Amino acid sequence: MNPTIAKERIEALTRQLNNYNKAYFQEAKSLVSDFEYDKLLASLEKLEKAFPMYRLADSPTQRVGEQSSTNFPTVKHLYRMRSLSNTYEEKEIKQFVQRIKNRLPDEKIDFLCEIKADGVALSLTYVNNRLTQIITRGDGTKGDDITINTPLLRNVPLVLKSDQVFKEVTIHGEAAMPKAMFKALNNSYEAAGKPLLANPRNATAGMLRTKKIAEALKKKQPLTFTPYRLCAVGDAVTATQKAALQRLQAWGFDVPPTYQYCKDIVAIMQYIHHWEQAKHHLPIMVDGIVIKLNNLALQAQIGATAKVPRGMIAYKYKPDQAATILKEVTYQVGRTGVVTPVAILAPVALAGTTVKRASLYNAKAIAMLDLQIGDRVFIEKGGDIIPKVTGVDQQQRKAGQKPIKFVTHCPACNSLLVQESEDALRYCPNTLSCPPQLKGRILHFVQRKALNITTIGNKTIDLFFEKGLLRQPADLFDLTATQIAPLEGFQKKSIDNLLQGIEAAKKTPFSHVLFGLGIRHVGFTIAEKLATHFGNIDDLMAASEETLCATPEVGAKIAHSLITYFKHPTYRAEIARLREVGLSFVQAKPTIADDLPLTGKVFVVSGVFKSYSREEIRDYIQKKGGKVVGQLSSNVDFLLTGTKPGPQKVTKAKALAIAIITEEALEKMTKKKKGLSSLLLGMHLI
Ligand code: IVH
């Protein structure tokens, strides 16, 4: 290649990959598929090898990848978290096995194969068998201390199940969101009018990067943890990777039974082929497999390059990908007015279905892909679920094609679109008469988490809208049998059913009604919080922006949206009508008291206790409904201290205004069922 062209190509690839990295690591968004990314990275590596003088200082080939986000304290890893060399070629796996044999000619070589979970790498440290810290991979030598997000992980043991006490062990593994949880979460995002998450890995990264996680999500424990490396010294060390996984399992980790001892390349290939199909049935996304030298002493002996260990390699599966022609781009208007571009494609078979449309997300994604109508494009199924356009075949581009310009006006009502900032989504401001927005709002109002009127769906709303029977949710309650009877497809029975469904919905609790109003940024969880906090719609409507912002979980964006909504005469009139028909705008008092006295309370335990061992006191708290965590944070309610508590813990608890209590106080708290808050008032704080 001509050096000038090579230089330009290196610069362009570096810029492009760095943009992808920034979007991925700082905004938790994937702009390209892994496959595409790996291909670009491999060509950059090749070019840099041939023309090392053009390699740039910020080349993505020189880093593991992730930049620390500023939100969390950065801490050093006890054990370096390297990356893995990876390949899509079977022949490179054979070469890998051969290389190891050449390096270790006199040794018996065998392997352990594992699935490669597609999530976010984490490092967990246990001191004296207790979980003390969780760190993200970061740049491999230091990462973010995200210990406060421990409650998001459903299967991380807080204490190692072992009679032996280990002074310090570190476990590396992958946090991932199960596919089912990802689907459920995206459904709820859709209902709340939020942009959808691209895939489970992004969802995991985004969640772990968030400082304030809603209690509701913590309770769901949306992420799983799969351990893949035990780092330790002395007694905790095992001779083989297989024994390490077995030990981790015995300690209480969920080690999936997908790993396999492979004595040679034939067994490795069988493993690769088996999981290529079988991976679709696993609960989490798997993007490949990892082949590891089973003997850990030999692994250590052959060591690592600057970036990757020599004793392991990842074989990555090619994503289900197809190429087709981009016929046109259409635009969809959502309930909240957000306009989303959709690619209309020449139909093509992909992973068992025929794909005719694919998401293009937003204007930025279109620009990054440099799309033009008539392009030959590559499509993939992101997270096995939503098809998306991942790249363009530049070679096939013909002269005369033009870049795609995002529409400036609403495709449904022709209003000028609004964009709050350069990066923001574009939306149609005509909330009062843009048809897809009106219909979307009614559909949202009848959905399961709102009024749950199962007798009305998309098609009925379309028909009623067309006939002028429905424009706003409140119109539902004015519908009569006489109006519906002349319409096609309605018999007496279906009309009765429909009207009964509407009537029954009048009993819907306030929080669901509030969610059903479809206020921008007010998802189900926020609606529940607001309903509980304010108790009724009048107090909520009267609240100032300041008061709203002071409400748990409510930020400036939500507060602003609420104020705007409640100021609007149309929406005020809508609420008045809904109130008139008898919907509930007052939160009912909870009828069932929490039966366990410590439900919802979070403890940190420190020091030596008189009547309990550490283990026993933790069990005690857990049995009474409380939760014990390793680290103090603003989510912790109590520091429970015995004699000789950790001085740093006490100082930190004071700084965070966390109540410091003794074991006697704990016993008192748990004796009286309802006495927790009154006891708290009179409690003796150290
Ligand atoms: S071993 C020295 N084993 O894949 C690196 N990694 O693409 C040790 N991963 O950073 C990694 N499953 O986050 C290993 N069974 C497995 C894995 C696995 C997923 C991730 C890990 C790593 C990335 C490399």
How does this structure look, described?
The chain has 686 residues and is an alpha+beta fold. The protein contains 24 helices and 22 strands. The strands form six sheets. The chain has a five-stranded mixed β-sheet with strand order 2-11-10-3-9. Strands 14-13-12-15-16 form a five-stranded antiparallel β-sheet, with no helix packed on it. A four-stranded antiparallel β-sheet has the order 5-4-7-8. β12 and β13 form a beta hairpin. α1 runs antiparallel to α2 (34-50) and α15 (510-516) packs across α16. The radius of gyration is 29 Å and the shape is globular. The chain starts with a helix and ends in a 5-residue tail after the last helix. The relative contact order is 0.08. Mean pLDDT is 87; it is low at 64-69 and 673-686. It binds 2-(butylsulfanyl)adenosine (IVH). Residues 82-84, 86, 114, 116-117, 121, 174, 228-229, 290, 309, 312, 314 line the site of 2-(butylsulfanyl)adenosine (IVH).
List keywords for this structure.
24 helices, alpha+beta, 686 residues, single chain, 22 strands, 36% helix, binds 2-(butylsulfanyl)adenosine
Show the helix and strand layout.
Blueprint: H1 3-27, H2 34-50, E1 74-76, E2 86-87, H3 90-103, E3 111-117, E4 120-127, E5 130-136, E6 142-144, E7 168-176, H4 179-191, H5 200-208, H6 215-220, E8 224-231, H7 241-250, E9 260-262, H8 265-278, E10 286-293, H9 296-302, E11 312-316, E12 321-333, E13 339-350, E14 353-359, H10 363-369, E15 376-382, E16 386-392, E17 418-419, E18 426-427, H11 435-446, H12 458-466, H13 481-484, H14 492-504, H15 510-516, H16 524-534, H17 537-542, H18 545-549, H19 556-567, H20 569-580, E19 602-606, H21 614-623, E20 627-628, E21 638-641, H22 647-655, E22 659-661, H23 663-671, H24 676-681
Parallel strand pairs: 2-11, 19-20, 19-21, 21-22
Antiparallel strand pairs: 1-6, 3-9, 3-10, 4-5, 4-7, 7-8, 10-11, 12-13, 12-15, 13-14, 15-16, 17-18
Helix pairs in contact: 1-2, 15-16
The structure holds 2-(butylsulfanyl)adenosine (IVH).
The site of 2-(butylsulfanyl)adenosine has 15 residues, from strand 3, strand 8 and strand 11.
